[in-house]
Amino acid sequence: MSFTVVNPATGVAIREVARADVALVDEAVARAVIAQRAWAGLAPLARAEALRAFARAIEQHGEELARLEVANSGHPISSARWEAAHVAQVLNYYSGSPERLIGQQIPVAGGLDVTFHEPYGVVGVIVPWNFPMTIASWAFAPALAAGNAVVLKPAELTPLTALRIGELALESGLPEGLFTVITGSGSVVGQRFVSHPDVRKVVFTGSTEVGVSVAADCARLLKPVTLELGGKSANIVFADADLEKAAAATPGSVFDNAGQDCCARSRLLVQRSVYDRFLELLEPAVAAWRVGDPEREDTEMGPLISAAHRDTVASFVDDARVAFRGAAPTGDGFWFAPTVVLADPGDRVAQQEIFGPVLTVMPFDDEADAIRLANDTAFGLAGSIWTESLGRGIRVSRAVRSGVLSVNSHSSVRYTTPFGGMKASGLGRELGPDASEHFTETKNVFYATDAP
Ligand code: NAP
Ligand code: MG
């Protein structure tokens, strides 16, 4: 059995990819169990050096990986190059972990007490289609660094970079069976990661709906799970902000990756006293957002991932109050023009994750109103606050219930800082200095020193 991978910018089929069954997953997990024991037994420096060699292989094949992502996901080439480089950086960053997974020595009577960070064993990683290689690396790099083996399931729509990264792992010298990419459907391969007794931890990134069912199934087996789910993040613009700067930054905050970004600032909240002025500044910025051929160096936004997804995104705009739109190519490919809609807080466009280039705009009156509106959603992943007041920036960033916020910036992802959501946006954190520890269990050992 196989499935067809399609270039979303042209609609043309590019490759057939195998669909694994449960037996194939079980074989990979059995190999991973064996490989993990040997891997965890290596000297810390040997594991560090193996991960550095893997990072170098990714670096050396960065252009190839970027081109694959352009063809499979329609990401603009400049973004895809950033993504490939990011994977290598994440591996390099966590290659420091094997030598730094430091436990504690705790004062006790009658002996010596020490804690160890023990790897889980085999970790199952389930990845969505929006950022195929970067999101995979956020789990596999720290998991491997902590002494685990990894089985990785990319989304059926976007398996190509993950498959190549799996080959590069072997070519760079990682042991056979330690890191296996398994293509197939979520309901078969992903579900088997959840139910397999030898997969001891699951990392799931995807929709809140599937995430909740994955977590419920993991709970029955007492299997720990990290969830990175959806978002409906607010971009809050106060009257005292640098309005020109905030308006110029707004298209990128929501239309990057055609809005198929869990951190997209898809709700723009603007203080009423500058609401009209801000929309005047925003309109030309949206018109100037360059949508088109992802292979062009200056393209800022490519197509949506599939025809079905384009239909879903369009269904949100059909009955909405459109303020203005940018441009997009017509013809083959799953194109959708950047769209700005006016909304009320309870509207479907203001509450549900659209995962496309649609920005919902709402006015607010004062700081308390802004905080209330920002928190008026089931999600809590990211968000931005634009203000020239230091005190307001601090107050509002502490009051918005989101995992990743930025003030006078739209930055969300730095591999050196923690990433993840509150509320319906997830459980647990990825990236940052502590991520490797999240792939370990603490063991406490007491050594009696009393003389016999
Ligand atoms: P999805 O439908 O939930 O799928 C995510 C992954 O789970 C895919 O690999 C999918 O496989 C697999 N899957 C589906 N059903 C499964 C099941 N019953 N058991 C185990 N695995 C299963 O999400 P998506 O449509 O690909 O991605 C979009 C969503 O991801 C958005 O909601 C977005 O916000 C979220 N996201 C969150 C983050 C974050 O870090 N917070 C980052 C990126 C995306 P197949 O599709 O191959 O069948
Ligand atoms: Mg899906």
Cα-based radius of gyration, to the nearest Å: 23 Å
Strand content: 15-25%
Biggest sheet features = 7 strands, mixed
Top CATH class of the largest domain: Alpha Beta
Total number of distinct structural domains:
2
Q: Runs with pLDDT <50, length 5+?
A: none
CATH superfamily grouping of the largest domain:
Aldehyde Dehydrogenase, Chain A, domain 1
Kindly report the oligomeric state of this protein: single chain
Number of distinct helices: 14
Features:
binds NADP nicotinamide-adenine-dinucleotide phosphate, binds magnesium ion, globular, 7-stranded mixed β-sheet, single chain, Aldehyde Dehydrogenase, Chain A, domain 1, Aldehyde Dehydrogenase, Chain A, domain 2, 14 helices, alpha/beta
Explain this structure:
By secondary structure, the chain is of the alpha/beta class. The chain folds into two domains: 2-229 and 425-447, Aldehyde Dehydrogenase, Chain A, domain 1; 234-414, Aldehyde Dehydrogenase, Chain A, domain 2 (3-Layer(aba) Sandwich), CATH 3.40.309.10. Helix content is 39%, strand content 21%. The chain contains 14 helices and 20 strands. The chain has helices at 22-41, 44-60, 62-73, 77-94, 132-145, 160-171, 186-195, 208-220, 243-255, 275-287, 307-318, 348-351, 367-374, 390-399, and strands at residues 2-7, 12-18, 105-106, 111-119, 122-126, 149-153, 179-181, 199-205, 225-228, 234-237, 267-271, 321-325, 339-342, 358-364, 379-380, 382-386, 404-407, 422-423, 426-427, 440-448. A seven-stranded mixed β-sheet has the order 12-13-14-11-10-16-17, sandwiched between helices. A six-stranded mixed β-sheet has the order 7-6-5-8-9-19, sandwiched between helices. Strands 3-4-20 form a three-stranded antiparallel β-sheet, with no helix packed on it. A hairpin with a 4-residue loop joins strand 1 (2-7) and strand 2 (12-18). It starts with a strand and ends with a strand. The mean pLDDT is 98. Residues 126-130, 135, 153, 155-156, 185-187, 190-191, 205-207, 210, 213-214, 228-231, 262, 353, 355, 381, 421, 425-426 line the site of NADP nicotinamide-adenine-dinucleotide phosphate. The site of NADP nicotinamide-adenine-dinucleotide phosphate has 31 residues, from helix 7 and helix 8.
